[in-house]
Structure formats: structure tokens, C-alpha cells
Design a protein that fits this description.
This protein is an alpha/beta fold and 233 residues long. The protein has 2 domains: 5-17 and 100-223, HAD superfamily/HAD-like (Rossmann fold); 21-95, no CATH class. The protein is 41% helix and 14% strand. The strands form 2 sheets. It has a 6-stranded parallel β-sheet with strand order 5-4-1-6-7-8, with helices on both faces. Strands 2-3 form a two-stranded antiparallel ribbon. Strand 6 (174-179), helix 9 (182-190) and strand 7 form a beta-alpha-beta unit. Helix 1 packs across helix 4 (75-95), helix 4 (75-95) runs parallel beside helix 6 (127-136) and helix 8 packs across helix 9 (182-190). The protein is elongated, with a radius of gyration of 18 Å.
């Protein structure tokens, strides 16, 4: 009997090369937010922004700026405004073609589908940004389902990445989670899935040490023993 392994892909840093355009867009939105509240704009730390990529938005927009730069009584309003402005800048970057998929991503996804793998796409990003990524880069032709954390919470099907994996993989006997951050590996392991750490994204060798496999380019995923189809004797 054929048994299919479902593959669940993270988005930024796994399929989408967001290391420059998205980080710059977040920095732009952050600068706008300081000015909106008539606050001095500190030196914007792009490394700090990059390090937070992959976190749920509830944490991301609080982790990427120095807390001392915003009065405590303004924090919640500042974070809410920052999320709106940053997302607007990120979507604008997508619309003007400032982002691209990593080399080999489209060919890899096409080959995986040919081999019989159901493909799922998930992200901690806001729904509007995630939807823009999917639309701009034509990802729906590869993926059976695509889900952002914001949508998952709104639909009450999951509250975190592990819950999203469980929801997306419910009908399949085996799953592999593929991502570039420790959050992706942890989500897969929490669900009993195998995991692939993508070293070409935001994560590094140490962060992804717990993954079952690590790859340096997207096409290397094709060489892993993912077992799309197995026949029982």
C-alpha cells in the first residue's frame, strides 16, 4: 500500500530569499513608527531584525528594537503601529519585485510533487504579507495548502507552529518539516516529524544542529531519503 510523506515548508529563509529586502522593509517601517510617535530614531540594527525572523508576530515586533528607545507607556501602541507599517513596507517590497526565491526552489518543488509528495506551506508571518508572498511568487501551483499563523489563530485551528504542523499533516502517516530556524525544527520534533534544517537561510549550523538532516542548497532536499512512496509486502 502506498504511504505518502507530506512535506511542510517554512517560507522566509527556506523558499524566499528575504535576507535583504524584507529586513530593509522592516527597518523602514520601524523608522516610520519612531517618527510617527515623535521619538528619536536610534541606529537600526539589521542583524537584530534578521535574528528575529521566524518568530511569531506577537514576539517579532517587540524583539527587533531596543526597549529603552520607547517609553513604557507607549509600548503597546508603538508595537501595534510598527506591525502595521512594517507589513505595509514588506508587501510593497514584494509588489515591486524586490524579493526572489532561492536558486533551485521552483525546480525542487516541482520534482517533489512529481515524486508524489503532498506539499504544505506555513509561516509565522502576518496573513497579508504571507498571502502576498504566495501570490507574487506563484507558490500555489506547488502547494496543496498554505497557512499563516494569523489565519490559523483566526480559524482556531492552531496557536503556534507545532499546532500548524499537526493541522496540515493530520491526514498523512509521515511528515517532514523543512525550515531555516530552530522554531521550525522544534515544531517538527514536537509533532514527531522528521526535520530538515536549511543552512542557506537565517539559521546557522549550531541553531539547526537538532535537525535530522541539514542542506546547504534547496536542491539537496531531493537527495534526502524522504520516502514519498513505499509498498508494503
Amino acid at each position: 500500500m502506498a504511504q505518502r510523506t507530506v512535506l511542510v515548508f517554512d517560507t522566509d529563509g527556506t523558499l524566499l530569499d528575504a535576507r535583504s529586502a524584507v529586513v530593509d522593509a522592516v527597518a523602514e517601517g520601524l523608522g516610520e513608527t519612531y517618527r510617527h510617535f515623535d521619538l528619536p530614531v536610534p541606529a537600526l540594527d539589521r542583524d537584530r531584525i534578521a535574528a528575529a525572523i521566524g518568530l511569531p508576530s506577537s514576539r517579532f515586533f517587540r524583539d527587533v528594537y531596543p526597549p529603552a528607545s520607547v517609553p513604557a507607556e507607549l509600548t503597546d501602541r508603538f508595537v501595534g503601529e510598527f506591525e502595521v507599517r512594517s507589513t505595509r513596507c514588506e508587501v510593497a517590497a514584494l509588489r515591486r519585485g524586490a524579493t526572489e526565491l532561492f536558486a533551485g526552489v521552483e525546480e525542487t518543488l516541482a520534482r517533489l510533487r512529481e515524486r508524489g509528495h503532498p506539499l504544505m506551506l506555513f509561516s509565522n508571518a502576518q496573513a497579508s504579507y504571507f498571502d502576498a508572498v504566495v501570490e507574487t511568487h506563484g507558490l500555489r501551483r506547488f502547494f496543496d495548502r498554505a497557512l499563516s499563523l494569523e489565519e490559523a489563530v483566526r480559524r482556531r485551528v492552531a496557536r503556534d507552529k507545532a499546532g500548524m504542523v499537526r493541522h496540515l499533516c493530520d491526514a498523512f502517516p509521515r511528515a517532514v518539516v523543512i525550515g531555516d530556524r530552530v522554531h521550525d525544527v522544534e515544531a517538527g520534533r514536537a509533532c514527531g516529524a522528521k526535520t530538515v534544517g536549511c543552512l542557506y537561510g537565517f539559521g546557522d549550523q549550531d541553531e539547526l544542529a537538532a535537525a535530522d538532516w541539514r542542506v546547504s542548497v534547496p536542491s539537496s532536499i531531493l537527495d534526502l531519503p524522504l520516502a514519498a512512496r513505499e509498498s508494503a509486502d
